[in-house]
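Below is how a single chain appears once it has passed through the pipeline. First comes the sequence as given, then the structure the pipeline wrote out for it. We keep one example in the README because the format questions we get most often are answered faster by looking than by reading.
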Amino acid sequence: VPLGTGILVDAAGADTYDARYGAMGFGDTVSVGTFLEHAGDDVYLEDGRLIAALLGHGRELGAGVFADFLGDDSYRAANGSAGVGNGNGAGLFLDMAGTDEHVALSTNTWGFAAGQFEQDTDPRRALPTYGLFIDSGAGEDTYTRIDLEDDDPPLVGNGLTWTQRADQDSTVELGVGIDGDGLTGYEP
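Resulting structure:
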């Protein structure tokens, strides 16, 4: 919803969340979407019928925030999901604790930024687009994505930091991913 705010907070329990598009911390067109999961071994998006824009995605001057504070979690990230900014938006994905499994069905996931403007003269090209992915749990996280199979050393993975953006020459697209133990200072 343009100019809207959506918030979901879950305090505890081992939960399963499923959605197809625009959910779990999705902010679209000058809006803010926030998803906060405090505790439990949770499963996100297990049904496989995913489309896009989930788990902390902001687009068109919107902000999407996704945070899971405790638990050994399992994630399936669709196109443009898990800390992705699109078209001058900002997306944030935070997993603060646990041994997590991350599976991506697309390469533009896990801290990715894409301005995606068709016209070179579009004035929005000068505005920033941000995507940030942080998994700071102390466990041994796993990452599976089609483009990672042949990477040696891996671009994305446990204990690594990476950058990703649609236009490698852009100075206003910034996508960052970080997997580091205790990186945020959060103590469960």
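The mean pLDDT is 90.

See the next section for the split statistics.
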